Fold each of these.
Amino acid sequence: MAIQDRIALVTGAGQGIGRAIALKLAESGGDVVVVDINMEKANETVKAVESLGRRGLALKHDISDTRSAEEMIEESVGKMGGLHILVNNAGIVRDTLLLRMQEDDWDAVLNVNLKGTFNCTRAAVKYMSKQRYGRIVNIASIVGEMGNPGQANYAASKAGVIGFTKTVAREFAARNITCNAVAPGFIETSMTEGLSDKVRKELSSHIPMKRLGSPEDVAESVLFLASDTSSYITGQVLSVNGGMYM
């Protein structure tokens, strides 16, 4: 199995893409720490992980808070016995056009999506550096590469994640720690469920593969980057977007 007996931590793993990633890692032999602000959903994911024969641990932490992120990593290592894989998936959106965007909308999105990734990664690499092994996968976005009207805050946060990924990759490569990003396009999640058929058809018309992606499409890419199959790949952005942006 691709990550047999490795210990992974996935933020925002209570539902959607994060849940799919957690389950894919468990299917592939990993034990998984499921972090989410919704403990009911986190516990549901843990039950699914355990049904696959792997250990799971549900934690509630605010990754935008530096101390909370540090405690999250400490608790994970203490209870699970180590940490080999970190997937920074947690993120929020507060979409509106720039002229209508409030400072709170900007700060909230940057604090979770970008600062949260920084907080979790900085705390995790302390352990990974000592063991001279680590796989870090950051979930970016197609809009961090191409921009999108109404998402100045979200696009900026995800573009920041890409730049952060490349820098972490350079700083820790000598410690056998890789850091890569996955940039999903439009994926079938609760965020896209409310789209009308007209909007969905319009979106699909801009995607060469003529469909939205699935959470499992993203999870497969994360698994690849989290495994030793990708041991000579670092600082890269793997786009999972059906060809919408090339």
Amino acid sequence: MSLEIENLHFSYGERKVLDGISFVLEEGSFVCLLGANGSGKSTLFSCILQFLPKYEGSIKLNGRELAELNTRERAEQIAYIPQSHIPAFNFSCLEVVLMATQSNGSIFYVPDEKAEETAHEALSRVGLAGFEDRGYARISGGERQLVLIARALAQGSKFLIMDEPTSSLDYGNQMRILSMVRDLADEGYTIFLSTHHPDQALLFSDAVILLHDGKIMSQGRADEVLTSENLSLIYGLEVELVPFMGGKMFTCIPAQVLKET
């Protein structure tokens, strides 16, 4: 399932946010989107998801313009995984996942046996078998993020857009979530994930897109795109990529820290 974006522009009034964005995400790829706050990451996601439909340019999924698809057709193609949050009402984990199986848009929707089976399988797939009756608002942040991934899997879409899914998680949960996302990509899911952590992209992604002032500054393999120069520019902080594992991997460290050591 490939996504092709060509010459995408979007403005909030007179303020241009996206300025001529073009790229292709190949089926089964895991692509990380990086950029400073205000660079246009959330706006780009919102345009793809048709939350902001008044853009200029083309957004095609498998050769079809997303703007021409109705809500149900888009839901069959793309699932959105936001940052975990605590809802006002304490739905059970099963109920949260079952929300993704509703395809007719009716407020009177009652999940059938197939939907229940799909939801149970999705929770099991992310390691949460036995969590069905637990309150979504009462589990940990990492567990809530897994429930949201299970909800996306239950939706049946093979293209997953993930908005900083590890932003509020501890290191262990970050690695568990990203390892699972890597596995999904290896199974054929197409992943488009935003992050503020270059190390995550270096460890897990197939490719990286760097946004800077509403434009793509660089795109390609993580080890080619995430250079000291590029990262220093987009984040306004002098950083260095430090090799480890005999030069097979790199980690990103502020230059000031290196000077002090």
Amino acid sequence: MYPRQKHLLAIAGLRPPEIGHLLDLAENYVLLNRSGKTQRDLLRGRTLINLFFEDSTRTRTSFELAGKRLGADVINMSVSTSSVNKGETLLDTAATLNAMQCDLLVVRHGQSGAPHLLAQKVEAAVINAGDGTHEHPTQGLLDALTIRRRCGRLEGLLVAICGDILHSRVARSNIHLLTTMGSRVRVIAPPTLMPSGITALGVEAYHSMRDGLRDADIVMMLRLQKERMNSGLVPSAREYFRFFGLDSEKLAYAKPNALVMHPGPMNRGVEIDSAVADDPLRSLIKEQVEMGVAVRMAVLDSLSRGPR
């Protein structure tokens, strides 16, 4: 039996049994949530702190809901009004959190590696909710769960990840998870948004939607992360959509029953056309949101039990 992890900082390094365990546990929480019997005592008496140095209503709310459904006391720390904004260092923050004796710490930070640093300095179990351009492990898990539930498997599927690969921590977590679980992964982006050496991660790289989407089972679109971009990486929103935005014409390059995903928030008319995003038969976007709560419940459950 593999050792249980204390923290969840990345998908890279996790083995198929560890990933499979979290996905199976999340499946149970999907059923529990749909039954309406969502309040449990698993985390009663435990404290969960959401420490978000970057805005993210969707992820923070999902972790908050997951914690409350498991019975935890949930605290959202607003960094914009905290001592961090007054010059407190990350290590000072770690010392403060240790004094508070929290049990679970969910961290989103603009710098890659910040959750890893905190994990070395705090007693709590640390969950990376996105760090810089490094990883966003629970997003990778929820995307995998969404795909597995609809397709019945991950092994052997062809997944095309399209858009701002350069700045996307979502892309990196998905690449690590999907290749580990036996999927074939393609990345599609303009040259300015394609990281050098990306093929070393075991993916195929394309600069054309026509070529990259051919025979794809899953088309995963990414948000243009303008807040991380220098000027000139993309010409204009209109021009970007013309070549790399997903509409019905480009989706036709994929398999006839190909499914569409997007981690959100979506820029409609830039990364994806509304008709595709809202297609009730092919879009998994709403299901991704539901799976996010179940996956985060599974992660909190697993980490709360501590390492073996």
